[in-house]
Amino acid sequence: MTQEPLLDFGQEQLSEQEIYDLCMQTNFWTWSAQAHVKPIAVDHAKGVYFWDIYGKRYLDFNSMVMCVNIGHEDERVVEAIVHQAREMPFAGPNMATKPRALLGKALRSILPDELDHYLYTLGGADANENAVKLARAYTGKFKILTRYRSYHGASYGAIALTGDPRRLVWEPSVMMGVVHFLDPYRYRSTFHQNNPNVDDATFARDYLNHLEEIIMYEGPETIAAVMIETITGTNGVIIPPDGYLQGIRALCDKYNIVMICDEVMSGFGRTGEWFAFNHWNIVPDIVTMAKGLSSGYAPLGAVAMKHKIAEAFAEKVYQGGLTYNGHAIALAAAYTVIQVMKQDKLVERAKETGKVLTRLLEEMKEKHPSVGDVRSLGLFGVIELVKNRESKEPMAPYNGTSPEMIALKKFMLDAGIYLYTHWHTVLIVPPLIITVEQLQEGFTVLDEALKITDAAVTSSV
């Protein structure tokens, strides 16, 4: 029986309208009420830009989903993926492979020496869930302490770790044993409303005292780990003061608690260091990563752990794993991403361009009365919008939106600037390859867009 030749994927032809219509007819969209989804129909991307199917160009101020750190369609990574697909697209998670060996070697070159074993996952959420499993099995304890403004993923374990309202709809069916504590959020500090200019050392100590009090109430003998986003990500780019990370490290050592740093968003050069915890010269016991690890070119997460944790499973079986853990194509992509970052000095570049981002953010704060606060480290920035600087009333309610925030985002998209707004904040998370001129291009439009939120500012009388 003669078979007709298989139609090559690249030869499949769809009109612009067919692409959009078929996606709308068949796809179930995440984080969305299905009747209100209006996706951008993306055709291709390059560098810091992507184009829709109608030819409109967008400057990507969000690295797509805070992940395309090296920029879109870098041929070196694409070629590595193609090479690995031709050589061996898949091997089981219990097999040794060339990309597994090479990525392990590459990770050892950018992480502290103590973090020398890596468990590969499908993304950030299951990296965080595996970190919890490791901490619980290693310590024999159960509770995990995380922060209220944290986001650690949307799977059942990770959403329980998450402190923000995204977890509320799924309670009480999510993973048990999680206790939340407060972030060191200077702009809206619970402890310092009457003394907002307290020095960093005192500020850090007050939040560390808060954490230690919770540890004592819960019982240190019950707590397996303290898990934090090193820098709180989507919930405000909250940068800890000097002494805070060091203080958590000391508390974990004091009470025999595993310290886990979630670097899914802040890792791989985003802050001007390979990992955000490098800024404070501490070494966590476990580090989780994803997003920038493969720069979004393939799904991948990882859990880095200290030798003592890996060694605890020398004779004890680690009960965990999924079919696609350590997928060969994803590992090849990640290995090449690290090589690209080294060759192009993207970590150093993010540090330098980050100084320009800080200046541009400060200019927006000086110019626009709706800008209550700005924060950034490297190319990880946020604008916090308020209706009143004195009362700090947010431009949109907690876990909500407002006509002004919707209009601001629409203005930016209409002008070809793609960014992420979250409640009353605007995140600035561009690819690390962005130039000063491209950064200025986006801020020129943002300067105009902020007139929308300025119009909603009320007096303090």
In percent terms, what proportion of residues is strand? 15-25%
Poorly predicted spans = none
Order of helices and strands: HEEEHHHEHEHEHEHEEEHHHEEEHEEEH
Mean pLDDT figure: 96
Number of domains: 2
Q: Provide the helix percentage.
A: 25-40%
CATH class of the largest domain: Alpha Beta
Rg measurement, Å: 23 Å
Helix-and-strand structural type: alpha/beta
The biggest beta sheet is recorded as: 7 strands, mixed
Q: Write out the strand line-up for the largest beta sheet, numbering strands in chain order.
A: 4-10-9-8-7-5-6
Describe the structure.
The structure is a single chain. This protein has helices spanning 16-26, 63-66, 75-87, 98-110, 124-139, 156-161, 200-218, 244-255, 307-311, 328-343, 346-367, 403-414, 436-454; strands spanning 42-46, 49-52, 57-60, 115-121, 143-147, 178-181, 223-229, 258-262, 286-289, 301-306, 371-377, 380-388, 393-394, 417-418, 420-422, 425-428. The protein has 2 domains: 12-70 and 345-454, Aspartate Aminotransferase, domain 1 (Alpha-Beta Complex); 75-343, Aspartate Aminotransferase, domain 2. With 461 residues, it is an alpha/beta fold. It is globular. The strands form 3 sheets. A 7-stranded mixed sheet has the order 4-10-9-8-7-5-6, with helices on both faces. It contains 13 helices and 16 strands. The relative contact order is 0.14. β5, α6 (156-161) and β6 (178-181) form a beta-alpha-beta unit. α4 (98-110) packs parallel to α10 (328-343).
